[in-house]
Design brief:
Layout (H helix, E strand, L loop, with lengths): L3 E2 L2 H23 L4 E6 L4 H17 L2 E6 L6 H13 L5 E4 L9 H6 L12 H9 L3 H6 L6 H12 L8 E5 L6 H10 L3 E5 L6 H6 L3 E4 L17 E4 L3 E3 L2 E3 L4 H5 L4 E2 L6 H21 L1
Parallel strand pairs: 1-11, 2-3, 2-4, 5-6, 5-7, 7-8, 8-11
Antiparallel strand pairs: 9-10
Helix pairs in contact: 1-11, 2-11, 7-8, 7-11
The structure holds NADP nicotinamide-adenine-dinucleotide phosphate.
NADP nicotinamide-adenine-dinucleotide phosphate binds next to helix 11.
């Protein structure tokens, strides 16, 4: 079998083009486009790449986006103060914080400083907590929340395959607050039978081999071997790892493509869809302020 490529760039373009008419209408009524604030703390080569990609995607969609850097070497309190200021700035519709943040920063304190209605990534405890309280996809949709954006992107890609999710064995490798845990919950809400693996999991390969749906978000280049992929599995690789000058996923792409039915490339898979969802959340936040 040779897997179909799940083209995240095409899915992202479709999400963004569906927003454009709405954004153009808001530009007219408000006199300005919806605006996303991208808060950066510790500039790194990798985060600069993601930042530029977000600024470009926003501009192509008709949205305004601006970087708000924290002063070099400043602590978590300065970051929280900046977020609080942007939270009360009427010209800002939504806010994201570029990760990674320095070790020791409380994600709870940082995410809590963003007003829930401006939380484009779905990380504020009010959005995040209510997401986990919703037991089904219908409850998530009805909850009037912003679900965690990378998990939402992974589910959007999965829906592209038209694969029936209910009852399937889903294995998620990685249990971070940002990706692994929320996507495991989302898959469970869609009635998949979910196994959540992590660095202490024994016999990881045996879990992966059972997966009809495999989501990887462990951040280890090509750690998931192609030989472990169940024939016909859908493989969504959220990993974005630098290997020399290139970006690679968590899965051995070429070997896994031999057995999977669908697979996301890295780059060009989960990343662009996550950005498109952040932009959609920005437009949504602006719409709520105008009605
Ligand atoms: P993280 O916070 O470092 O979490 C990594 C997770 O992987 C942890 O749960 C860890 O287990 C687990 N893990 C590490 N090594 C493992 C191993 N050998 N076997 C099994 N599990 C292992 O990372 P993250 O923030 O979730 O990011 C993960 C990856 O996703 C990174 O490459 C990141 O760049 C990418 N990412 C992509 C997007 C996107 O939009 N595409 C968004 C966010 C992140 P423990 O819990 O036991 O430590």
């Amino acid at each position: 079998m040779s897997a179909q490529i799940l083209d995240g760039r095409a899915v992202a373009r479709a999400i963004r083009s569906a927003l454009q008419a709405d954004i153009a209408a808001m530009r007219k009524t408000r006199g300005a486009p919806p605006k996303l604030a991208i808060v950066t703390h510790t500039p790194q080569a990798s985060t600069q790449v993601y930042l530029r990609a977000k600024l470009k995607a926003a501009s192509e969609t008709g949205l305004a986006a601006q970087e708000f850097p924290c002063a070099p070497g400043s602590g978590a309190e300065a970051l929280v103060r900046l977020l609080a200021r942007l939270g009360t700035d009427a010209s800002i519709d939504s806010i994201i914080v570029e990760q990674p943040l320095p070790k020791g920063f409380s994600l709870d304190a940082v995410f809590s400083a963003i007003p829930p209605r401006k939380d484009a990534e779905g990380v504020h405890p009010a959005n995040y907590g209510r997401f986990f309280l919703a037991k089904s996809a219908a409850e998530i949709a009805a909850a009037d929340i912003i679900p965690p954006c990378t998990a939402a992107a992974i589910i959007a890609l999965l829906r592209e395959t038209n694969v029936h999710i209910a009852g399937k064995e889903a294995v998620v490798v990685g249990r971070s607050e940002i990706v692994g845990r929320p996507v495991a919950h989302y898959l469970s809400a869609l009635d998949a039978t979910v196994t959540l693996c992590h660095s202490k999991t024994e016999e990881l390969s045996e879990h992966v081999k059972r997966a009809d749906i495999l989501v990887t978000c462990l951040g280890k280049p090509a750690c998931i071997k192609g030989a472990w992929i169940k024939p016909g599995a859908v493989v969504i690789d959220a990993g974005m790892n630098r290997s020399g000058d290139v970006l690679v996923g968590d899965v051995e792409f070429a070997a896994a493509s031999e057995t999977a039915s669908f697979i996301t490339p890295v780059p060009g898979g989960v990343g662009p869809v996550t950005t498109a969802i952040v932009l959609a959340n920005t437009a949504d936040a602006a719409r709520r302020q105008t009605v």
